């Protein structure tokens, strides 16, 4: 659907990832966001029936029938006692297309007329199969130059039309009002960076993949998806120790990459984390050399980053300083959540950015 907006004070951000459904409910008062509620749901089953407790294998949620996803969303809303119904949902980065292009600029009206024709050069599918959206990154102060044509950078995004229709069906089935669909990386940028316009890398480690996003001027410039995430690490631990996925997940959260003698999972984890760092370093180096511009900061988000010693080990392998992204830095939350706020921030970063979306 087109990227519509809404005015209600309470809003939901729903992040349907490959391994979990994450929902954040925010309220806006006096210009500040307040965390009202949040909820998390994984589909695990011993057979083919969704269950909250039994688990033999974590399912890829995006491949489930719509009815099961609707059921999962309803479970989160019910258990977290969430009452808001206006929703912004995210589209995974691997399902979308986004780029920054340069175009001659005369006026926004003329740009709007010519952009669909220009977009055909960059979008690898017919335009009637996608929903197209665009934003001017920086409007020139003197838009008309008589000696040299003025150019402007345009952020171009395309979402498959059938995906937008699917999300509409899912939210409607869950009794929710889908007011906007947004690119996952755009939601991350809003939550983590705020008004910071410097070149920054966001490494978002999900359940089944790692997204490496370079943001500059508040807009995504480069996005690279690496098909290794937290679940692959869990499987590696399970194979190397000959234990169940549940036991491997427990060890991963407990031991992480601690440099201690009794850490039996170090070797099975490090090679995969090393590859994540390698892919991140390669993406950064390519951007810096191509754009002749230095990356100012590297931010880590995603549930895996909460593992003991993960951030320091990743920093060591990357060879540059990294920081834990804080999606709740501009959100008021109950002090009782302070002991776990970093874990919540990392896990719910996309959902938080979605709930922050406003005019």
From TrEMBL:
NCBIfam families, per database record: pilM
Family annotation (InterPro entries): ATPase_NBD (IPR043129), FtsA/MreB (IPR050696), PilM (IPR005883)
Organism superkingdom: Bacteria
Name the UniProt record assigns to this protein: SHS2 domain-containing protein
Gene3D superfamilies named in the record: 3.30.1490.300, 3.30.420.40
Pfam families: PilM_2
């Amino acid at each position: 659907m087109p990227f519509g907006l809404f005015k209600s004070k309470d809003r939901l951000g729903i992040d349907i990832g490959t391994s979990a459904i994450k929902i954040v409910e925010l309220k806006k008062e006096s210009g500040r966001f307040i965390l009202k509620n949040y909820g998390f749901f994984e589909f695990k089953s011993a057979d083919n029936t969704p269950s909250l407790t039994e688990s033999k294998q974590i399912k890829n949620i995006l491949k489930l029938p719509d009815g099961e996803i609707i059921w999962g969303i309803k479970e989160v809303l019910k258990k977290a006692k969430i009452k808001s119904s206006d929703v912004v949902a995210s589209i995974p980065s691997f399902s979308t297309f986004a780029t920054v292009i340069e175009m001659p600029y005369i006026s926004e009206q003329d740009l709007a007329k010519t952009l669909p024709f220009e977009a055909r050069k960059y979008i690898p599918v017919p335009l009637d199969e996608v929903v197209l959206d665009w934003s001017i990154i920086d409007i020139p102060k003197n838009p008309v130059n008589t000696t040299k044509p003025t150019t402007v950078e345009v952020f171009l995004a395309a979402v498959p039309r059938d995906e937008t229709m699917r999300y509409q069906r899912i939210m409607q089935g869950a009794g929710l009002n889908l007011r906007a669909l947004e690119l996952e990386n755009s939601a991350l940028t809003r939550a983590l960076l705020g008004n910071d316009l410097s070149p920054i890398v966001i490494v978002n480690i999900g359940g089944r993949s790692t997204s490496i996003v370079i943001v500059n001027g508040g807009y995504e410039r480069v996005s690279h998806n690496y098909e290794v995430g937290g679940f692959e690490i869990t499987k590696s631990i399970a194979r190397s120790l000959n234990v169940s996925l549940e036991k491997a997940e427990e060890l991963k959260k407990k031991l992480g990459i601690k440099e201690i003698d009794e850490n039996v999972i170090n070797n099975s984890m490090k090679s995969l984390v090393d590859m994540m760092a390698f892919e991140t370093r390669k993406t950064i180096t390519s951007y810096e050399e191509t754009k002749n511009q230095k990356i100012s900061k590297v931010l880590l988000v995603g549930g895996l980053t909460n593992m003991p010693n993960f951030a320091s080990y990743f920093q060591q392998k990357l060879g540059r300083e990294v920081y834990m992204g804080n999606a709740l830095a501009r959100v008021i939350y109950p002090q009782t959540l302070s002991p776990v706020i970093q874990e919540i921030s990392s896990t719910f970063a996309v959902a938080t950015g979605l709930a922050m979306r406003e005019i």
